[in-house]
Amino acid sequence: MVGLYCKERANHCLLVLQTPGLNIITEYAMGLIYPGRPIANVCFKVYGYMSMAQAVSFLNDFKLGHYMKIPPRSMFLVQFIGTILAGTINITVAWWQLNSIKNICQEELLPPNSPWTCPGDRVFFDASVIWGLVGPKRIFGSQGNYAAMNWFFLGGALGPVIVWSLHKAFPKRSWIPLVNLPVLLGATAMMPPATAVNYNSWILVGTIFNLFVFRYRKSWWQRYNYVLSAAMDAGVAFMAVLLYFSVGMEEKSLDWWGTRGEHCDLAKCPTARGVIVDGCPVK
């Protein structure tokens, strides 16, 4: 979804790129059409969602290049070369890991504090089981316990209309147009496989630079804010490589409360009837 947001009485517009979570929509639809087939569900998700996600990522790069006054042809050439290099390197490294690291992605067989638990791949696998093998009909349909969750689709459709209506009803309330439900709800897609602790840094940095700096040092914000965003993204990549060579290869790990488990100790017992687990009450 590409939109053009122009602030009132401003001489510039901001290109806004937002996309719906087609990963859930494709999994949900394929689970209804072809239930009991997790591999088919995963393949449909990849072709339906990943291609769209990569296209939106490219558009985001073009947006940054537009603000940085980078020629479009040069930007596209860099994207093309980067895609070829990244795809080749990713496949090579993944193939090497799968064939050289024993019990990779098998958390129960790995030693304690092993970095090869593959949280992102586990989320992908869990999604194939939930939406493909089990199927949405047994969870969110007539055979499941969470059919009421489907009403949130209607709530998501009506949410922007409600915000727009409030803005029209109270035009003097300057904070109402700042409420962007697609951004607020879409940001939750970045939570898995990480824990919610990453939201603390996002809120802190976002509040400082997009509220206080934007309001009181607008010229600095206009010149450096997007450069700062790109620098933070690059910093994450550099730190990942640095930590791997300085900590991971030495078989050491960082131990703090944010890396200890999933922080969901209450979710140990099944909710389905007739499923027996030691230490859990039978329903």
DSSP strand tally: 2
Assembly state? single chain
Identify low-pLDDT runs: 1-15
Arithmetic mean pLDDT: 80
Strand content: under 5%
Q: How far is the first residue's CA from the last residue's CA?
A: 45 Å
Tally of alpha and pi helices: 8
What's the helical proportion of residues?
55-70%
Structural class: mainly alpha
Radius of gyration computed on alpha carbons = 23 Å
Q: Specify the overall morphology.
A: globular
| Strand ordering within the main sheet | 1-2
Largest sheet: 2 strands, antiparallel
Order of helices and strands: EEHHHHHHHH
Write the layout of secondary structure elements.
Layout: E1 2-6, E2 13-17, H1 22-33, H2 38-67, H3 72-100, H4 119-134, H5 151-169, H6 181-186, H7 198-216, H8 218-248
Antiparallel strand pairs: 1-2
Helix pairs in contact: 1-2, 1-4, 2-3, 2-4, 7-8
What's the short story on this structure?
The protein is mainly alpha-helical and 283 residues long. It is built from 8 helices and 2 strands.
